[in-house]
Amino acid sequence: MMSSPKEIMRENLWTNNPIFMQILGICSALAVTNLMINTLIMTLGVVFVTAMSNLTVSLMKSLIPRKVRMIVQTLIIAFYVIIVDILLRAYLPDISRALGPYVGLIITNCIIMGRAEAFAQSNPPVLSLWDGVTSGMGYMGVLMTIAFVRELLGFGTVLGFPVLPSGFEPWIIMVTPPSAFFLLGIIIWIGKTIMNKEGATA
């Protein structure tokens, strides 16, 4: 039975979140979550690519031969990633340089390929677009949470604006990559604990 938009949103944002339930796309947690602005731009790029890739795959699914389905999906994803990369280079060159090769690596993000194959390949275009948007938002929510904690404790700022007292001593560990996995582990633990309690009371 086809899921409703509300069910799709709940699943992608919570019960089947691509980060803390499926454990997909976690390399980004290590790579880009030391500053919130970098994380925001990166995750918006992923939302755009996931949504548009889903829409395109759904529109073209009857035209794509089964034997080359995965190759065509990869090409579609790469097309939208190139658009994101060009726009960043043109309008946000500083952030583009800060993100470096990680924008290009959106192509290899398992979340995008997973939604194209698992959902867009067998669902209508509008629902596929919505699935892509909400999957990207589920990814964004987790990474922005990690980036918020890392930037706040590592630099004393939020989105580049100082928010902690001048005497605050930054936690150096928060600007190093291992802190991202530590925080991700905490988020996964909290999320699964809440879900287990919800399941026990259902």
UniProtKB/TrEMBL annotation:
Keywords: Membrane, Translocase, Transmembrane, Transmembrane helix, Transport, Ubiquinone. It is a multi-pass membrane protein. It comes from Alkalispirochaeta sphaeroplastigenens. PANTHER family: ELECTRON TRANSPORT COMPLEX PROTEIN RNFE, NA(+)-TRANSLOCATING NADH-QUINONE REDUCTASE SUBUNIT D. This is NADH:ubiquinone reductase (Na(+)-transporting) subunit D. InterPro entries: NqrDE/RnfAE (IPR003667). NCBIfam families: PRK09292.1. It is found in: Endomembrane system. The chain crosses the membrane at residues 20-49, 70-92, 98-116, 137-159, 171-190. One of its GO terms (cellular component) is endomembrane system. The keyword Transmembrane helix applies.
